[in-house]
Amino acid sequence: MLNVLANRVYRHLFFAQVIALVGTGLATVALGLLAYDIAGTRAGAVLGTALAIKMIAYVVVAPVAGAFAETLPRRAVLVTLDLVRAGVAVALPFVTDVWQVYVLIFLLQSASAAFTPTFQATIPDILPNEKEYTKALSLSRLAYDLESLISPALAALLLTMISFHSLFLGTVIGFVASAALVVSVLLPSPVAKERRGIYDRTTRGIRIYLATPRLRGLLAVCLAVSAAGSMVIVNTVVIVQSSFVLDQSATASALAAFGGGSMLAALVLPKLLERVADRSVMLAGTGLLIGGLLLTTGVASFPALLALWAVLGIGYSIAQTPSGRLLRRSAHTEDRPALFAAHFALSHAAWLLTYPLAGWLGATLGLTAAALALGVLALVGLVSAVLLWPAADLDELMHTHDDLLPDDPHWSEGHHHRRNRHTHGFVIDRLHREWPHSP
């Protein structure tokens, strides 16, 4: 897996991602503790609302950012957004009221909503080989998991020496270091084949996404992933510090268990995906999330919680890591920034539902009711994915063109059948606006 780091450009971007994620992870731990410091036992509700605001920023800003991703130099965009995030993070230690948390989270995550899709869409252009790109996806998942493992452990160590407010300094350092690494390389910026209006550029990614069956199934999987992830992220601090009456270090340890399980899954996924189809792997991971959520309703000890959080981490990684492969297959190179932005926005719309659901159900009806409701929601996601995503997910499809002239150059692509039919690698674009029905 690590041989993909021989590519200098990808290596710099990968380490930029790792450093920024560790800083973000410290801020995540600190934000949970800040919410508990301000709101006490209702910290889950406060944190759930704060994270819902984060999702609003993601859903609203990402498609607009994707519209401009093909017209602006990627390196300048990524560096500027890193510095903006660093500037906002400087203000977080000085928060004293809940409304201030909400405002700063919106500003910080608006910058992230523009940064992440641009970053993700750059990787397949740097690594066009599918095997290398799959390894990069697993490394990226591993980076997220290492953050989940290292950041809480590092936070637990630092909390023995400093106030949790000081953890936000790590976020600032992470974003500045990330910007420095991005500056050190040249990044490709695909040139659009045709000029498009702002409306077309803003909505194109979402139109491609919703017209592609495998991506509609992916969105349903994302609903299950967000249900499980919200239970862990929002309610871990309440479960550990209120239900089990343990300290902040135990909260960090529980989050680390979740990250450890996810990291374990990321290590085995590249080999697994060489033998098993993306659909089967992702649906299996979704089933694991459902089982874990339902078992959460009966967790009675801290060691049991650690084991269960590790299982949820495994399912979390298996269910979502291959998503980049699906996105890469489903669009032309010039459309990838818009499609990645659409996935970012639509998948986080699911978190917009599950974050406040996890927080407010936990605060009003109890943690058992929250876990049960989220488990049922994840089951809805699994059933929807099975129905929306065909098991025979082919790249090349036979389709018709009733509106093309016989001498149109497009007929030369793929294999031309009788009359107005031909077969080639199919994605939604200007000439293919609807997915073909099975013959």
Automatic annotation (TrEMBL):
SUPFAM superfamilies hit by this protein: MFS general substrate transporter
Annotated ranges, domain Major facilitator superfamily (MFS) profile: 9-393
Keyword entries, A-Z: Cell membrane, Membrane, Transmembrane, Transmembrane helix
Sample GO molecular function, one term: transmembrane transporter activity
Membrane topology: Multi-pass membrane protein
Pfam families, A to Z: MFS_1
Subcellular location, record wording: Cell membrane
Gene3D superfamilies associated with the record: MFS general substrate transporter like domains
Cellular component, GO, one term: plasma membrane
Protein name per the record: H+ antiporter protein
Source organism of the structure: Rhizobium giardinii
